[in-house]
Write a structure and sequence with these properties.
Bound molecules: s-citryldethia Coenzyme A
Strand order of the largest sheet: 3-4-5
CATH architecture: Orthogonal Bundle
Strand content: 5-15%
CATH class: Mainly Alpha
Largest sheet: 3 strands, antiparallel
Helix content: 40-55%
Order of helices and strands: EEEEEHHHHHHHHHHHHHHHHH
Low-confidence stretches: none
Radius of gyration: 24 Å
Structural class: mainly alpha
Number of domains: 1
Mean pLDDT: 96
CATH superfamily: Citrate Synthase, domain 1
Shape: globular
Number of strands: 5
Amino acid sequence: MDNHTLTITDNRTQKSYEVPISHGTIRAMDLRQIKTGPEDFGLMTYDPAFMNTASCQSAITYLDGDAGILRYRGYPIEQLAEKCTFLEVAYLLLNGELPTSDQLDEWNCRVMRHTMLHENVRKFMDGFHHDAHPMGMLISTVAALSTFYPDVRNIADARCRRKQIVRLIGKMPTLAAFSYRHRLGRPYVYPDPDLSYTQNYMNMLWRKTEPKYAANPVLSRALEVLFILHADHEQNCSTSTMRAVGSSNADPFSTTAAAIAALSGPLHGGANEEVLRMLDEVGSKEHIPAFIEQVKEGKRKLMGFGHRVYKNYDPRARIIKQVAEEVFEVTGRNPRIDIALELEKIALSDEYFIKRKLYPNVDFYSGIIYQAMGFTPDQFTVLFGIPRTVGWLAQWEEMMLDPERKIARPRQIYTGADKRDFVPITLRSVHDRELVGA
Ligand code: SDX
């Protein structure tokens, strides 16, 4: 065996094992052979939150957390954000190559043909309270969409998979815009396929009585860039959820609804909304030192900071800061940007953050832009979910085509009671383990 191996000595038995190393990993199943006797199940790895576990092989997105590098299909995010449209990047993520001009035209038409919703989805949307959180509306309506297309469960057929993928990419902005209009009590604006993907989204959000919506080019370009930056990010929490749920052969709409639910958490995609609440709470530069002390005392987190992979500046945050200044030229400066910039400056010079390699992530500045554009904080994570739908679906299809694909089913370390016999209710004693709850 070549020297790309690990030699393991089990000190319990003095036995030695050679385990191959590939791509900087060993196969967890190669540890199962390490036993103390024939009745032993064999060794497993224990890795809560998958801190040091590769769950799959993927060719879609590459991250280098220490260097702060992000590439989609090998292309640096900085180049894609500067030179591409969002649907061009969506094509790249799904197909592995940038499209030719004709391929892009055909792709744009295909997606924009699938922006309409069945009228019954409107009735479903109308059932929500006026103050329903848009992420709850998105989770529910995306899952409900699976009931409108009988072919959605035909996931073994490549053409059918692609049809669902295009349907979802096309319909996400419509669902998001309908939820936005529903909460404001405004009539729904239907898609206009003559417009680009982001201009049509703005049309469904903000058109009033004008016959044709004219999107501000600076704002629609800013949305294109923000959508590109949020499109994929290897095996983050919501993408891992997409792969796990999809591994049971669930349909792609229900699977995407599960991914949206994972994204909604404040430690993940919900952080952009929490950043704005945090900046409003800080209120002014004068209050920053006291807030930073609370963070260092562990009383709260600096939302929008830190990352499981990036131990350097998130390359997306760097680009978003540039986009912010361009947007403010149109919308006027959002004063919260000055508090955010001062927070970043102070944090990046403080030993607590330096030692823990905590830098601004994608969520630190994005909400400030969204708010300047007219979105309320509870819409921010929806703006994350629209573009991330492309990444989720690209990763889902890659998983569906993976020759190693099996249903995701991890094991556990059992820490519960040993075998014990049933106790009749008359003989039971009061215990203090009752879960306190409603
Ligand atoms: C996204 O994974 C992805 O790729 C996600 C994402 C994507 O595109 O899909 O990039 C999008 O989710 C970005 C992250 C958005 N979340 C936030 O901004 C929430 C605030 N950040 C933290 O909750 C945290 O940094 C996480 C959840 C992002 C990462 O957490 P980890 O990797 O589990 O790190 P940890 O919680 O173990 O922290 C290590 C140390 C701890 O201190 P000690 O116990 O060593 O004393 O760093 C501290 C933490 O307390 N720490 C923070 C902090 N983040 C980590 N302290 C203060 N503020 C923070 N934000």
